[in-house]
Hints:
By secondary structure, the chain is mainly beta. The protein has one domain (37-320): Glycosyl hydrolase domain, family 43 (Tachylectin-2, Chain A, 5 Propeller), CATH 2.115.10. The protein contains 1 helix and 21 strands. It has one helix spanning 3-17; strands at 35-36, 44-47, 53-57, 63-67, 72-78, 96-104, 107-114, 122-129, 138-146, 158-162, 165-170, 177-182, 196-199, 208-216, 219-226, 238-244, 265-268, 274-285, 288-297, 303-314, 317-320. The protein is globular and about 45 Å long.
Amino acid sequence: MKPLRHLTLLTAALLALLPTTARAEVTYPDPLSLTGQQIIHDPTVIHLKSGGYVAYSTGGVIGARLSKNLRQWDDAGNAFAAPPSWWYEYNDTGDPWAPDVTYRDGRYWLHYAVSSWGTNHSAIGVATSPTGLPGTWTDHGKAFTSETTDVWNAIDPAIIQADGRLWMAFGSYWTGIRMVELDRKTGKAVPGATVAHLATRPDAPYAVEGPYIVKHGRYYYLFASYDACCAGVNSTYKIRAGRSTKVTGPYADSTGKPLLEGGGDLLLAGHGRYIGTGGESVFRDKGQDWLAYHYYDADDNGTPKLGLNRLGWVHDWPVVK
């Protein structure tokens, strides 16, 4: 063996023995550079049939932002002029959380959560609109609820169609991520429908929430937010993912570890000024998949802002670009 080749192989062998902490840390791409009203939490984004984009979010009476190009965002008020009266059954302020906007059967659909911090006395509501624009929504009441006797929490809805049926992933803490079938005509849970279990963690308090499911190729991909939200620069939110050949699971990560056993590939974590990345959703626009999420800006006192990254696929696994 030539001395140089021997040295190269020896160096490679020694590097393989180094502890993981001695290797280069994983790096993540920064989000798209944005202007205008960037403050947002738990964003859901859709390209409207009339042109332009709308993002709905936690805050206000479901806060709205409008954009013509995904870069400049303008405040557009709220989805609703005032909270529907039934919201006050779940908190004193009529404060909705974590909306999800979709388009189906000629209408826009808005699912959202109403709850209070630290309880699973919660509800997911549903509204429809002919245009998807703020101020045009008609509320249709509760789509699904949970009580303190349940082992799941009915917040953070995410809607997906699969094989002609309509499904809603949801969940936060308690036992993690769940799924229930919806009636296509009403957008509400099918009476007596089984509540499937998609993801959890072995460690209390089971800090996984905010699911979102998309189909790519022959797989369904479950994205979820892990760890702690809503603490500014002290937030530890990060986005993990797994996949399944069936929308109802079981989901597993790239190592084969089930998401019901704490698995999940790390897709995006805090880096640089972009702290606590989570509250994610995915939308498709002009053949490109996008990941929308919020982060806490370390250069702006931890203010929550909109993050947008292209979502790519390598060997049938999602990657942030």
